[in-house]
Amino acid sequence: MLNFVMSYLGSTVTPGQAGNQFWALIYVLIIFAGVSVAVVAMNWIERKALAHFQIRLGPMRVGPHGLLQPIADALKLMLKEDIIPAEADQFVFWVAPLIGLLAAFAVYTVIPFGPSQAVSDMNIGILFMLGVSSLGALGIVVAGWASNSHYPLIGALRSTAQMVSYEVAMGLAVVSAVLMTSLNSTGTGTLSMIGIVQAQQQQGIWFIFKFFPLGLLAFVIFAIAMIAETNRAPFDMAEAESELTAGYHTEYSGLRWSLFMLAEYAAMIAVSSIAVTLWLGGWMRPFPNLLQAPAWQFTFSLFPGLTFLGLAAIAGFGTARMPAHSFFRIQRIGLGVFASLLGSIALLLLLIAVAGRSADTSIAARFSEGIDYVYWFVLKVAIFMYLFIWYRATWPRYRFDQLMRVGWKVLLPISLGVLIATAIVGVIIS
Amino acid sequence: MVPITTFHYLVVAAALFVLGVIGVLTRRNVVIVLMSIELILNAVNLNLVAFSRMWGNLNGQVFSIFITVDAAAEAAAGLGILIAFFRNKETINVDEIDLLKW
Amino acid sequence: MNPVVNSALNTTIDPGMAPVATPFFFYLLAGLAIAGGVFVITRRNSVHSALALIVTLLSVAGLYLMLYAPFVAATQIIVYAGGIMVLFLFVIMLVNIERVSKERRFNRIWPAGVSAACALMALFVFAFVKGKALFPDRLMTLRESSNTQEIATMLYGERGKMGQYTFGQYTFTFEIASLLLLVAILGAVIMTKKKM
Predict the structure, then answer these.
(1) Do B27 and C170 lie within an 8 Å CB cutoff?
(2) For residue B101, with 0-12 CB atoms within 10 Å meaning exposed, 13-18 middle and 19 or more buried, which class applies?
(3) Stated pTM of the model
(4) Cα gap B92→B84, rounded to integer Å
(5) Can you give A76-130 as a three-state secondary structure string?
(6) In chain C, pLDDT over 70 holds for what percent of residues?
(7) Which residues between 17 and 46 in chain C have a beta carbon less than 8 angstroms from any beta carbon of chain A?
(8) Which of A107, A132, A148, A179 to probe by mutation at the C interface, max C CB count within 10 Å?
(9) Which of A99-103, B24-28, B51-55, C97-101 has the lowest mean pLDDT?
(10) Are C77 and B66 in contact (CB under 8 A)?
């Protein structure tokens, strides 16, 4: 039994490749927990960042600087009364958020956090991701219909039409990135996510910079299409409060609504992961070929620890700045504890990085390598998450017909052109 | 336990095909008739892919992709006809769609 | 165990131990597909039928995965479940009229339809029984092994073969399929345009 558990450690393939169901299950649980934590953190960051963009403070009361606000929100949603519209179709009303959630979470099976840190590296990884994320549209249209009311139905139809339209541009941008993987000696590309990042590693260039400006254009098309896919600003006509009340999730309350929000944030993280894997080099640190000296390796491996140290410093600064009043005592203590928690994580990571430098094949070195891979991936995805919030704070909303015009008449021709140009340049070069 | 042979997949495909035929022949709602046609096409696809596995070459799989493409085109065209008819006669009952020209 | 020689492939496939999970997943997916099919043709509510059809399509995609056809499975999910079914749901919502839910589900001559389908099933059974003699046992039994990548490569050859087939032997079919899609798009757009 212990053999079976330990047999996978130290392997260089994903649990799916190795056929090890136990470790695949462990990875799935880790991903589930990680995504839930990420959604909670994302909720907090969104409210605070939007508030600061609008020159106000955001939640400050619930925990120190509102850190416990998402947890309070989750508790409130879980304890709310479960209202179902009278004439609504019970079964379909119940099943609709589940379809969206299933589609959003199933994508995480193939996301590569490292060269062997994925649940299962399918041969058709990117195709699987595109297909499963298109199932999310089904959940939305069914949710709108099941609510048996006008605004949700119109909102759902608009939302679905938007998602389906931008899927086409997304798919073409993905195809042009996959095309770039085939520019190697054997001439065969790959659809597997880990293979795509390894192709970038082999060709020594992130695909966003390849065949400048084609890679950049494909990335920009995908970035725009992925915002429209997830119904986020500026493409959030279907769910904005001032438009159709709340679109397809108007009639959903309490836990069901939180499932929709969970599905939306999870889908955001999933499509950002696709963008990072295809164009931004996945788990690779910046300048892997240019700055190759061991000193640079060591510097870059310190980054996880330094990031947490920075976060701990910010939290510590916040603690120091809190008014020394008895009202704020609990908040101050709480924030101090949080700062020290972040600091201890930072120390641990720095220790692992330093210990990993000493010997190349020790456990610490393997740990440090794994942590580095996951860290760089998560950092890039986190940048995308912040960009999502930035767009929401800054840009006005597209009107629905403008939205459809952009999807079909602007993005689709440009992505087709980029695909053809990439193919032509690829053939000429090789 | 009996190991799964190609025959098992053929039986499943035949069952889906017969269910689709029943749907086409007995239902009155045009949308459900079109959905039964999709069932029939899926049964054919399953048959092709099962035989492709049996013979060990990819011909069946490649051809099943074209059948999927064909099904998509046909669903789009059929639903377009349905919507055009619905605009004129406000019904989706096959028994009432009986005019060649109105 | 003696290795089985499959002369159609000119290779030797070592039978090994058949995984226990395969019959379980096959019966599960096949049962889901057939149950979904039954729900498609019997539900009064069109949206329920559409959801049942989605279940059937996803189970058939799972069956494709069991047959070592990942590309066909992915295409099935993307095109059928993600595209065609969304189209169906759109149209159901656009033509949904109250009157339909109160009418009869099946038409008056349904016994004729069901007996025709039974005759068809009898024809299938006859074809299977007679045809079983044509397929020797060694071709019908599908050997599995625990290393799934290896068996896929063994069965179908190296990676990229699908593309070679599509753009080699089936180029003409590919072009005709694209033309068909173009015609379907044009037809759907023209038919649903409102008369100006």
Answers:
(1) no
(2) exposed
(3) 0.89
(4) 11
(5) HHHHCCCCCCCCCCHHHHHHHHHHHHHHHHHHHHCCCCCCCCCCCCCCCHHHHHH
(6) 73
(7) 45
(8) A132
(9) C97-101
(10) no
CA C27 centroid distance within chain: 15
Average pLDDT of the residues of chain C: 80
- Residue C9 has which token pair? 């492939």
**Residue C116 pLDDT greater than 50, yes or no:** yes
Collect all residues of chain C within an 8 Å Cβ-Cβ radius of residue A153. 93
- pLDDT tens for residues A228-245? 999 887 888 777 655 656
A376-417 pLDDT per residue, tens = 999 999 999 999 999 999 999 888 889 999 999 999 999 999
Task: Look at residue C152 and tell me whether its pLDDT is greater than 90.
Answer: no
This complex has an ipTM of 0.93
Q: Which residue of chain C comes nearest to A168, CA vs CA?
A: C83
Q: From chain C, pick out residues whose CB is under 8 angstroms from the CB of B53.
A: 67-69, 142, 155
3-state secondary structure chain A: CHHHHHCCCCCCCCHHHHCCHHHHHHHHHHHHHHHHHHHHHHHHHHHHHHHHHCCCCCCCCCCHHHCCHHHHHHHHHHHCCCCCCCCCCHHHHHHHHHHHHHHHHHHHHCCCCCCCCCCCCCCCHHHHHHHHHHCHHHHHHHHHHHCCCHHHHHHHHHHHHHHHHHHHHHHHHHHHHHHHCCCCCCCCCCCCHHHHHHHHHHHCCCCCCCCCCHHHHHHHHHHHHHHHHCCCCCCCCCCCCCCCCCHHHCCCCCHHHHHHHHHHHHHHHHHHHHHHHHHCCCCCCCCCCCCCCHHHHHHHHCHHHHHHHHHHHHHHHHHHHCCCCHHHHHHHHHHHHHHHHHHHHHHHHHHHHHHHHHCCCCHHHHHHHHHHHHHHHHHHHHHHHHHHHHHHHHCCCCCHHHHHHHHHHHHHHHHHHHHHHHHHHHHHHC
* Mean per-residue pLDDT, C170-177: 93
Residues of A within 8 A of C85 (CB-CB) are: 138
The answer to whether B8 contacts C88, with C-beta atoms less than 8 Å apart, is no
Question: How high is the pLDDT of residue A211?
Answer: 87
- Which of C20, C46, C49, C78 to mutate to probe the A interface, most A CBs <10 Å? C78
Contact B65, C75 (CB under 8 A): yes
Tally the residues of chain B: 102
- Is residue C71 in some structural domain? yes
Check whether B41 has a pLDDT greater than 90: yes
- Does some domain include residue C175? no
C-alpha dihedral, A260 to A262 to A264 to A267, nearest 10°: -130
CATH topology of domain B28-90: Helix Hairpins (1.10.287)
Nearest to A114 by CA among A194, A184, A230: A194
Beta bridge partners of C5: C12
> Token pair of A348, please?
């641990």
Residues of C in contact with B66 (CB under 8 A): 170, 173-174, 177
Domain that holds residue C14: 3-105+113-159
Q: How far apart are CA C54 and CA C33, in angstroms?
A: 10
| Percentage with pLDDT > 90 across chain B | 57
Neighbours of A219 (CB within 10 A): 23
What is the pairing mode between strands C4-6 and C11-13?
Answer: antiparallel
Q: Which of C1, C54, C62 is nearest to C29 (CA)?
A: C62
Q: How many structural domains is chain C composed of?
A: 1
Give the contacts of A106 (CB within 8 A, at least 6 positions apart): A132
Contact present, C85 and A139 (Cβ < 8 Å): no
Q: Which of A151-155, A225-229, C3-7 has the lowest mean pLDDT?
A: C3-7
**In 3D, which of A273, A385, A392, A320 has the Cα closest to residue A45?**
A385
